[in-house]
Amino acid sequence: MKNLRFPRLLVVLLSLVLGLVGFGCKKQSGDVIKVGEFASLTGKEATFGVSSHEGTLLAIEELNAAGGVLGKKIELLTEDDLSKAGEAATVVNKLISRDGVVAILGEVASSRSLEAAPICQLNKIPMISPSSTNPKVTETGDFIFRVCFIDPFQGTVMANFALKTLKAKKLAVFTDVKSDYSKGLAKYFKEGLAAGGGQVVAELDFNGGDKDFKAQLTAIKAANPDAVFVPGYYTDAALICIQAKQLGLNVPLFGGDGWESEDLIKIGKEAVEGNYFSTHYHPDVSSPRSKAFVENYKKRFKNTDGSPKAPDAMAALGYDSAMILAEAIKRAGTTDGQKVRDALASIKDLDGVTGKTTINEKRDATKPAVILLVKDGQFKYVETISP
Ligand code: PHE
Questions:
Q1: Residue 29 Cα, ligand 1 centroid: separation in angstroms?
Q2: Tens digit of pLDDT for each residue in 285-320?
Q3: b/e map of 162-183 (b: 16 or more CB within 10 Å)?
């Protein structure tokens, strides 16, 4: 799948050129602080973008209600990247060169964060990904941060979960080769498994957005695994669970944070029951910050049927990403990119909805993972695993 790298590079280069052309019209009006956000509000991973956006928006509204930052209101400019490769670079360039934002919040999906990060780095605009877990995201440069754990940790957590909780020794791994997140998580899972004495008996690939997974699932079934790790996103994961059942592959399927969407249940129905995944947060986690957040979020946002909407991990991390940015701007006393960057790098033990955030020397956060079980059409909290 090497060929996929080329278009991304091309898009980034093209948008860098466009960004430089647009540089002249950069403006930041004096009475507000403009913050950019890019998210998959529509398309294949729409629930990721919507959740993350709602959490971010709630934080900005609360900050503004409390007087804003440095005596100014924050204006959140949100762009939809349509869940599409190429689009993240375009919209982030627009936010920086047309709108003159002082920082960028986003994205959930690692591939799209990886697309935007070089643009933010080049323009010296701090970028905070709320929930992209692939290590390469922050490796892009010293202006790129995240407020969540990374996949070497998540992969190890799920390898130990397979070995200890599922008591599985022989594992199959089914990877989305279109996604940096999926490829990374598969790699770290396999390393964790090898370290714990487990064995990979089948390794198969799919392309995110595929509809028919039966050929690969048949090969997986023939290898007779004890369980199947699917480090993919929710739509594909749900279809994979359905087709696995249809083929009589009756072993547990489990995944990482990419499974977390109500659409996993809507699409997968009983086929996803009894399956597990790891993620960053669950509203049942009891901390005063989390309780207040859940209450406020439910008041502010509704499900399509009008009932109060409970926040998920992306919403919680979106909220924390905006709060951390506000704290950094406060500490910097200015919106100057370099100074805000330095302030972000100095954040230690900052209390948030998803726990305490400490930005380490790689600009990542070290945080516990939670394991959730799909039961009776809901995500049930199982356990918290600390780094
Ligand atoms: N960690 C995933 C990625 O890097 C995105 C994600 C975060 C999905 C949180 C669900 C919950 O692509």
A1: 34
A2: 878 999 999 999 999 999 989 999 999 999 999 999
A3: bbeebebbbbbbbbbebbbbbb
Question: Residue 22: what pLDDT?
Answer: 44
Q: In the structure encoding, which two tokens stand for residue 106, read together?
A: 């986003």
Q: In whole angstroms, give the CA distance from residue 306 to residue 169.
A: 45
Which tokens is 291 given? Answer: 């309780």
Ligand 1 mutation pick, 38, 48, 151, max ligand atoms within 8 A of CB? 48
Distance CA(354)–CA(337), nearest Å, equals: 26
Please list every protein residue whose CB sits less than 6 Å from any atom of ligand 1: 48, 108-110, 131-134, 181, 257-258, 260, 279-280, 313-314
Strand partners, 35: 76, 103
Q: Whose CA is nearest to atom 12 of ligand 1?
A: 109
**Which structure tokens are listed for 378?**
């809901």
The string of DSSP letters for 311-352 reads P-HHHHHHHHHHHHHHHHHHHHTS--HHHHHHHHHT--SEEE
At 370, give phi and psi (nearest 5°).
-115, 150
Range name among 19-23, 259-263, 283-287 with the lowest pLDDT average: 19-23
Cα end-to-end span (Å), the chain: 32
Q: What is the pLDDT of residue 8?
A: 60
Ligand 1 centre from 287 Cα, in Å?
23
Q: How far is the CA of 94 from the centre of ligand 1 (A)?
A: 24
